[in-house]
Amino acid sequence: KKSDVxxxxxxxHLMGGLGIYGLYLGKPVIANARLDVFENIxxxxxxxxxxxxxxxxxxxxxxxxxxxxxxxxxxKSHKFAKKNIDSEKTYKQYKSAILDLYSKKKS
Length: 107
Description:
By secondary structure, this protein is mainly alpha-helical. It has helices spanning 17-25, 35-42, 54-63, 67-84, 87-106; strands at 6-7, 29-31, 49-50.
């Protein structure tokens, strides 16, 4: 909770639980946003600071030196998490998907 910036998986990996927690906390999250995966779920306006290389990480850290920038990204992050990663919404999505799979197997 005390950090200014959250790091999660970078490089070829996919963002995990720490990144999601960072979004909820309203922190800038530097991670591999994997737009090829996440944009199909959440759309294109994902506030994750995408990084797959050392240079991208460094550039994001330089941007995050600014308090105003961290605040701006942090507010977007929290709003995004509340809208897209809410536990009730996730539960309903999984329940629907499981029931759909179950009904297809019975047919």
